[in-house]
């Protein structure tokens, strides 16, 4: 192999690696598809609002081509992350787990906060909503689990209760990503303020390239809670019963 061919191969490989990561504000979110299956309809029905207060907005983490966000350096508070210019995204994945239907919703943030200040690149937050059966006419919400740093939800915010969902009423799930947990890191909590609905894309609705990217991407300590590596583990840690 000649010196020139080695240089060419190296350049092609470098381009391949770099093309997989793009600026945080250039990731095109997925448009929410029309739900078709029972699980998709249930996920849309219970899709939570997200309240962020004066924190970073949620951003899409991956596009249809499998390009992953590069996030933002953990400095300068909310600079460059107050609003996602192409739109935000909420990710979802559902499954039966110990005879209950688990619906995981997740958001990506380009910065992580500690003590009210930006400290690290990348953050994932998630909520697991537990219902009895997505196929019945009026499913019952049995519990909710909210994440803290980085993957494991603390026991004090694993909740279980039993009531009937009332479509079109004030009964709705609202999540805040504005408060700090006991250790000082920003965490997901129940919100008493209205938030924003973002386009939901379920795991099976993502392109194959996007799923592969989320399975292999390195977000540091901020693990993707719904990918093949972490989904079952996250459900087990979120079990509130």
UniProtKB/TrEMBL annotation:
Q: Where does it primarily localize?
A: secreted
Q: Which InterPro entries does the UniProt record give?
A: NPP1
**Entry keyword set:** Secreted, Signal, Virulence
Q: Does the keyword Secreted apply?
A: yes
Recorded GO cellular component terms are: extracellular region
Signal sequence: where?
1-19
Q: Where in the cell is it found?
A: Secreted
Keyword Coiled coil listed? The answer is no
Among PANTHER family, the record links this protein to: DOMAIN PROTEIN, PUTATIVE (AFU_ORTHOLOGUE AFUA_5G00600)-RELATED
Q: Which family does it belong to?
A: Belongs to the Necrosis inducing protein (NPP1) family.
- Its name, as the record gives it, is Necrosis inducing protein NPP1
What species was this sequence derived from? Answer: Phytophthora megakarya
């Amino acid at each position: 192999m000649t010196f020139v061919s080695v240089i060419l191969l190296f350049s092609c490989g470098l381009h391949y690696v770099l093309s997989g990561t793009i600026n945080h504000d250039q990731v095109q979110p997925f448009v929410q598809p029309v739900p078709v299956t029972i699980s998709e309809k249930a996920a849309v029905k219970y899709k939570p609002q997200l309240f962020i207060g004066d924190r970073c907005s949620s951003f899409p983490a991956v596009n249809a081509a499998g390009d992953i966000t590069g996030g933002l350096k953990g400095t300068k508070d909310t600079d460059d992350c107050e609003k996602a210019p192409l739109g935000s995204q909420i990710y979802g994945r559902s499954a039966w787990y110990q005879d209950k239907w688990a619906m995981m919703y997740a958001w990506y943030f380009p910065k992580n906060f500690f003590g009210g200040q930006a400290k690290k690149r990348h953050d994932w937050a998630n909520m697991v909503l537990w219902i009895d059966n997505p196929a019945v006419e009026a499913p019952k919400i049995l519990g909710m689990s909210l994440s803290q740093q980085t993957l494991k939800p603390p026991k004090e915010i694993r909740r279980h209760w039993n009531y009937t969902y009332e479509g079109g009423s004030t009964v709705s799930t609202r999540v805040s990503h504005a408060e700090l947990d006991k250790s000082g890191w920003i965490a997901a909590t129940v919100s008493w303020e209205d938030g924003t609905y973002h386009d939901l894309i379920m795991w099976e609705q993502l392109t194959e390239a996007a799923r592969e990217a989320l399975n292999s991407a390195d977000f540091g300590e901020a693990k993707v809670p719904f990918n093949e590596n972490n989904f079952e583990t996250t459900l087990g840690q979120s079990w509130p019963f």
